[in-house]
Write a structure and sequence with these properties.
Elements lengths: L1 E9 L7 E2 L4 H6 L2 E9 L11 E2 L4 H16 L1 H19 L7 H24 L15 H19 L10 E7 L3 E9 L4 H4 L8 E9 L8 E6 L8 H7 L7 E6 L20 H25 L4 E7 L1 H12 L5 E5 L5 H7 L8 H8 L7 H12 L17 E5 L7 H10 L4 E5 L3 H7 L1 H13 L11
Parallel strand pairs: 1-4, 8-9, 8-10, 10-11, 12-13
Antiparallel strand pairs: 1-3, 2-3, 5-6, 6-7, 7-9
Protein name: Protein ABHD18
Pfam family, one: ABHD18
InterPro entries: AB_hydrolase_fold, ABHD18
């Protein structure tokens, strides 16, 4: 049974099966007209005639909703492709000529900087995702971690802080004639006090190990790759390390605490729930990375080792290189000297839940927004790498920084170089996002060069 519903048209072409007569003149004039749209009845009740505007038709809205959900689900993939395409299109938009190379260089620098802020605005300043620290400071956990980190500095300065022993359980993912990829699991080596502050998902660490075959470990090097913000999987870092197999350099990728399969159930994406989680993430990452380096050196007998990381991972790599008891290659890529730079000065300040931090702090004492910012600065100053000891071989420390980084200012990188005399800074042309996408070759060359500045753990006569 069908019932007639009167449908009001605004000069467009109708959708669906319609029955109407003598509307040709109305179509030519583009004026409003009525037609009768027949729809099936789904019950025994009569559907009364009513006037409905075309803009309330549900089909376009459903299509738009499905489109938005699809875009959000694949947002990271789409963003990377858009950034790459945008770089090419915007570069061609400039009037490039032989006589204006200097002006083009300046314009490209501005372009890279603007791209960082556009990416940051899309990812961090929209209401589509939860901000960092939406659950506040972390209560007693933050107090505990602050005390633990403060005790770390005099202890680290006075003696070699020996890593704990770990024994990963391995399974082979794939194997070819020249290389092998394994994944391992091990219990995090943190002490019981620190372990009690971790969610159950973080009690075990995961690691991927890409190694060349038919080469003795004593004649190989291995670099541990640490995760940057938002890097939840092994794939990107394995792609960075894969070509280094030709140089007899193995790659070990650590899944960061609070990321990937170690992400707490209540956490959305990379947005840590509490300030204490950021300190906890760093503390656990440092401990696990140092233990893996110790395993590579002592258990596997690798001739050289190193650690690298991009952005947040670079900060952790610098800390690991500083605290490790033996000389290793240390390679922070696109990294600040402190998390203060990222969360209080850079783009990520727009992704911080300042109101939630102020409300949480108000349980102890009323604070203004400026006081909350200063409090966060004080807490995150514990991540200042310039406070850490100089690595055992500062000549094997190479910082790779971007000339027009919208996240990490130049002065932050230079502070690290001044704190560690003998280290080297290399500059790549680009911003934070574009350098992450376009300069992997520069990162690989830095890895090779830093490892070449180390002595083999065995004498030359035995090699």
């Amino acid at each position: 049974m069908a019932r007639a519903v009167t449908f009001l048209r605004f000069g467009g072409v109708s959708r669906g099966r319609v029955g109407f007569s003598d509307v040709g003149s109305d179509l030519e004039k583009g004026s409003q007209f009525e037609r009768r749209l027949f729809v099936p009845s789904f019950d025994d009740h009569c559907i009364e005639s009513c006037h409905v505007s075309c803009r309330y038709c549900i089909t376009p809205w459903l299509i738009a909703l499905v489109g938005l959900i699809t875009v959000w689900k694949h947002r990271h993939f789409i963003l990377l492709r858009l950034v790459r395409t945008g770089v090419c299109l915007l570069v061609f938009a400039f009037d490039i000529s032989v006589h204006s190379l200097e002006m083009v260089s300046i314009n490209l620098g501005i372009l890279h900087y603007v791209l960082d802020h556009l990416y940051g605005a899309f990812v961090h300043r929209t209401k589509l995702s939860t901000p960092f620290f939406s659950r506040g400071w972390g209560g007693s956990k933050l107090d505990l971690l602050e005390n633990m980190v403060k005790q770390l500095f005099p202890e680290a300065a006075g003696k070699n802080w020996p890593p704990n022993t770990v024994q990963p359980i391995w399974k082979t993912v794939w194997e070819t004639k020249t290389a092998c990829l394994r994944e391992g699991v091990f219990r995090t080596p943190c002490d019981e006090q620190l372990l009690s502050t971790l969610s159950p998902e973080n009690h075990y660490a995961r690691v991927a190990f890409l190694v060349p075959k038919h080469v003795p470990p004593q004649k190989m090097a291995c670099v541990v790759h640490l995760a940057g913000t938002g890097d939840h999987t092994f794939e990107r870092r394995l792609r960075l390390g894969g070509p280094l197999l030709q140089e007899n350099i193995a790659t070990m990728v650590l899944e960061s605490p609070f990321y990937g399969l170690r992400r707490p159930s209540l956490q959305r994406g990379s947005k840590l729930l509490c300030v204490s989680d950021l300190l906890l993430l760093g503390r656990v990452t440092i401990e696990e990375a140092r233990c893996l380096l110790h395993w590579l050196e002592v258990e596997e007998g690798f001739g050289k080792t190193g650690v690298c990381g991009l952005s947040m991972g670079g900060v952790h790599a610098a800390m690991v290189g500083s605290l490790h008891p033996t000389p290793i290659a240390t390679l922070p890529f696109l990294s600040p000297h402190s998390a203060v730079v990222a969360f209080c000065e850079g783009v990520l300040k727009h992704a911080t839940a300042w109101d939630a931090l102020r409300e949480d702090a108000a349980q102890k004492a009323e604070m203004t927004l400026e006081q909350v910012r200063e409090r966060l600065r004080s807490v995150l100053s514990l991540t200042d790498v310039t406070r850490f000891p100089i690595p055992k071989n500062p000549q094997a420390v190479i910082f790779v920084a971007a000339t027009d980084d919208g996240y990490i200012p130049k002065h932050s990188v230079l502070e690290l170089q001044r704190a560690w005399p003998g280290s080297e800074v290399r500059w790549v042309t680009g911003g934070h996002v574009s350098s992450f996408l376009l300069h992997n070759d520069a990162f690989r060359k830095a890895i090779v060069d830093a490892l070449n500045r180390l002595q083999w753990r065995e004498s030359d006569s035995s090699l």
